[in-house]
## 1
Amino acid sequence: MRHAWTIDRTAQGFSLTLAGQMRPVLTQCLPPQRRPYLHPLRSPDGQSELTQDRPAHHPWQHGVSIGLNGVNGVGFWTEGLLAGHEAQDGRMRSHLAHAPSATADGVSWVVAASYHDPSGATTLLQEQQRWRWQHTGDGTYLLDLDWTLEAGVRVDFAQYPYGGLFVRMPIHPWSSPQLLSGAGARTCTAAEGRPARYVAVSVQDPVSASCAGLAVIDHPANPGYPQGFRVDGEYGFGPARCIAAAWSLAPQERCTQRYRLVAFTGAPDARQLELSTTAFARS
C-alpha cells in the first residue's frame, strides 16, 4: 500500500512527512529522563510551525506534552528547571512502546512513560499515550490521544490550576494570536480555568505570513466533562481535570482520558470547531 506520507525513525523518536512537503508535519520526541512530547507540529499546508519548544518564559515546556503537578506532593511539570522546586520534581523515563504503524488514512503509535519520586525509588505512575494521526483531506489533520495512567501506589492528585495535556504555541510580537473556546471566550483571561468543550488558538507565521492553529477538544466520557482549561498569558493551553478538584487513584487503578487535537489553517472557525467537537463526541 502506498501512503501519502513517509515515516523516518530518529535517534529519540520518529518524524512523519507528507508527500510534497520538505519538512515533517509531526515529530515525536522521546528525550532520556524527560517527558515525551510532539514538536514541531506543522500546519496541514506545511506553511506554519504550530508548536514551540523551551520558550524563554517557560523553558520546561515542549510543543504538545503532558505535565502533572501535586502527584503525592511531587511535580512533573518544571523538570527541575524552576528555582526552588528542584527537590520536589520527580523523575521520568519514556520509550516508544509501539512503533508507528500506517493504515490507509493515518498512523498510530504508543508512547509509554514511568513517573518516579525524586529519589527514583518509588514508581508512582505508569503512563500510556496512544496516538492516532489522521489526514482528513479537507485542509485539516487530527491527532487523537487516549491517555492512560495506572497507579503503582495510592496516588493523590492535588487540586491545581494546571496539569495534563498542554500545548505551547509560538507566540511572538508578530504572531497576532486569536483564541476561541467552546464557551465563547476570545481572550486568555476569559478562557483561563473555565470549563469548555474545546479551546483553539491560531498564530501567524513570521515567514509565510499565513495563519494556522491548533484546537484541543475534550471528550464527553472524560471525568468532569467539560474540563477546565488552563490558558496562560502566552496562549499556552490545555484541559486539566485537577482545576475543578483533587482526585486519586488506588494502587493498580487505571484512568483513561481522551482528547482530539485538530490542526487547521486560517483563524478559529466556530462552525467548523462545533462540527469537529460533535464528531469526536460520537467517535
## 2
Amino acid sequence: MRSTRSGNYGVPGDKRLMYRYIAVDCSSLLFGNAFKMKQLKANEVKTGAIFGFLRNLLFLAQYFHCNKFLFCWDGKGSDRKKIFPEYKNKRGKSRKEDKQLEDIYQAVLVQSRQLKNEILPQCGFNNHFAQEGKEADDLLANIVTYHDGVLMVSNDEDMFQMLDLCDIWNNGKQRMWSERSFIKEYGITPIQWVDVKALGGCSSDDIPGIPGVAEKTAIKYLLGNLPVHHKTFTAIKNGKDIIERNYKLVRLPMDGTKYQKIIPDTLNYDAFEKMCKKYWFNSFLENLSMDWENFFRGRV
C-alpha cells in the first residue's frame, strides 16, 4: 500500500541523488530521439530511436550513479478506452493526417519491439514490464508503490501524483521533481494532483473535465479559494458523474494493475559490443566519453 514517505535519497552536497533503481517510461526515451535522428539507419533499417534510447540510458546511469533499470512499456489494448472511447483519440487522428508523423511513429513501434524483445534482454537487462490493457504509467506507479529507492523517468505530468513516493526526472526538460519542489510550485500535495486532473481533465489524453475548470481553477477549488457563489463552484458540485469517470481514467495505478517483481540483471558487455557492430553504433565504442564498459561492470 501507499505510504507518505518522500522519495529523496540524497547525499549531502551532491545534487545527483542516489537511487536503488531507475524506472523508465520507455516512450519518453524513444519518440524525441526518433524525430531528432530520423535519418539514422543500418542496412536500410531505421535505428535513430534505438540509438537515442541507449544514449539516454548511459546518461542516466552516469548522472545518477545507477545502472539498475526497470523498463515500463505500454501494453496491448486500452482499459481506459473501454471506460471512455474518446480517450487519446486525437493523437491517432493527427498521425493519420500527417504521413511523415505516421511513418516516424511506425518506425518507433518497430524499434521499440527490437529493444524490448531483443537488444535489451540480450545485453542482460531483465526487468521489462507490460500488461495488457494498461499503460507504462500504471506500471511505473505500481513499482514505486511497492519498491523503495526508485527514481522515475517520465515526461508525463500525470505522474506528479506519485511524488510522495519517489522523485521524477523529466528527461525531455532535464528537470528533477521532488515532493518538496512540487508543493512549492503548485501549493498542493502530490496526492491532490489526481483531484486536479479529475476536475480539470487532461487535454493531452483527450479527457474533458468540468466545463470552465482548468488546472489553476481546480487548484483554487481544492485550496478552498473558489467562492461558493461562483458559477464554476456550482459546476463542480453538479459535475459528479464527470469527476467519477475521470478518477477511473487518471488515478494511478489503474485498478487491476499487477504487482511487478524485480529480478537481478545479467549485464553482458560482450553482447552489447556485438549489438553495436550490428547496428553500426560505432560511436558508442569509439567515443571515450561514452564509458559503456564501466556501465556494464557497474562502475558508474
## 3
Amino acid sequence: MANRIVLIGAGSAQFGYDLLGDIFRSPLLAGSHVVLHDINAASLAAVHAAAAAFVREHELPFSLSATTQRAEALAGAGFCVIAIEVGHRFLLWDQDWRIPQQHGIRQVYGENGGPGGLFHALRIIPPILAICEDVTRIAPQATVFNYSNPLSRICTTVQRRFPDLKLIGMCHEIASLAQHLPRMLATPPAELEYRAGGLNHFSVLLSVRYRSSGRDAYPEVRRLAPAYFQSMPETGDLYAFLEGHGRLPSAQEEAELRGRARPWGERGLFRVMLETYGYLPITTDSHFGEYLPWAHEVVDHLGILNFYAWYQEACRKKASLKPGTGDYHERLVPVLEGILGADSYEEPAVNLPNEGLIDGLPRDLTVEVPGRVEARRVTGVPLENYPRGILGLLRNQVAVHDLTAEAVLQGSRELALQALLADPVVDSLRAAQASLAAILEKQAEYLGYLK
C-alpha cells in the first residue's frame, strides 16, 4: 500500500515547496500519495497547482491531492506533518515581541522563549490540539511531525493531552552550527560526529569527535571558535547567500562576506556561553537569548534586528519548486525513510518526551536530543553527564512549560499569568500583568478561550 503523507499548513509556499521537493527526491517514498491541506483555499490551490505541474513535468512517481477538509485529508494517513501559523504571522509576532518590551520586560526576541514565547504558545497550541485530536480519531496509526514553534511548549502540551499519540518535534536549527564545524576544524563533514541536546532553540553542542580516531575535537573547537566567529558574516547575510546559491560560500565568497561583518555578528551571547560555560549553543542570539534574563546585556541587538528584517523579506519572496541537489532542505525525509525500513541511523536532533533522556528534568517535558531512527520507530538517545551549568539553565524553564501547558488545557488566564511570573526573563509583576492584558485585548480573536 502506498504511503499517505499529509502536509498540514501546505499553503505556506516557502516550507511547502522545500518539503515537497525533498519528498519528490526520495526513492524510498516513490509511489506515495501526498495530501496538501490548508484552511486558506487560495494559497492551497496555488501550491497544489505548482506541485502537480512539477510532478507531471518530471514524470515523478507520486500522486497529489489537496483539500481544505481536515478529516478528508487525514483518512488513511501514515504520516502527518504540522507546519502552521495562526493569523498574520509577523503582525502577531511583533506584538508578542514589542508589547512586553514597552512595559519594561527586556526580552531580546519573541518567538519561543520569554513572554513572547508564551503568547505565541497560547495562540497556536489550541488549533494544533484540534488537529491532533482528529489524528487520534481518524488516523491513530499515523506518526505526527510538528514543525511549528514554540516547538517544545507545543509538544509538551500535546503529549500531555494525547499521551498515546506518536509525536515527534522536528527542527533544523542544529544545522546552523553543524555547517561551521567542518570549516572551523578543516575536516570533511563525514569525518566528524557530534551530539547536541537541551530544549528546542535552547540547546548546546555537547560533544564533537573525529570519526576515524575517536579523538575528542571539542578542545580544538574551544580554541579555534573565537577566531573563527570573530568576523563571521551576520546570520541574515549568510542565510541570504545560502538561499540564493543553494550552497555554502567558497573561501573567496566567505572572505567577502566577512569583510563587511561585525565581530561575533548575532553571536554576542554565543561568545559568553563559550567563555563562561565552555559549550557552544547550536543557535544564535535571537533564539538562545529568549530564555535568559541577562541576555539583554550581551546579545547583538542590531544583528537580531537585521536577521528579523531578512527573515520577513525572505518569507515575502515568491517561492517555487526546483529539482533538488545536494542535501535535503529539511530532516524529515531521512527520518521517514528510516521508519519505512532504510538503514537505521542517528538523527542529530529530535524532540521527544524526556523519559530519562536528560537526567534532572521531568519525564513529560519535551527535550531535544539525538534520535535513533529505525524501522517503525524513533527513540531518543540518552545524554549522560549533561553539563551541570547548562542543566541549571534548562531547569529554569520547567515551571514555565508546565504552566503554559496547563493554561492552555484549562483555558486559564490565571495560569497564563503564573507562567509569565515563573519565567526568568520577567522581573516585574506589573509589567507581566499589563503585557498579558494588552495581548488578551489585541489578540482576543485567538485568546478568547482564556477565562
